[in-house]
Amino acid sequence: MTFEILTFKPEMQEIVLGKIKDIAEFGAFINIGPVDGMIHISQTMDDFVSFSKDKTLTGKETKRILKVNDLCRARIIAVSFKDMLNPKLGLTMRQQGLGKLDWLKEEIEEKAPKKEEKESKEKEHKDKEHKEKKEHKK
User: What is the pTM of this model?
Assistant: First the structure.
């Protein structure tokens, strides 16, 4: 008889994808498969964060809201195996490319040039080239 076993050993600095399981005054609990981790309130976003009774964390300036069931990308910054059956993980979302997936999507869209802006710049470039060719022929 043979057995197969699937294991997961969280590593420091590893980036993980998870779902927010619960939110408390001090931070958020995130499920990353076989284990849960904790994101301290100060590590949820680059903003002053407040907790509300409806179990959300809200950024003062950005107005970003973190709630239960949000999908997030986080980095493991602390691992404790004192209790082998229940390892403790500390995570952060305060680095580039980390955070709620919706926030990351918004950031990408903000950085990408709008279609109209891109078309306008292309037209300006073509007009400039055309003008330079005309002047060169004179």
Answer: 0.76
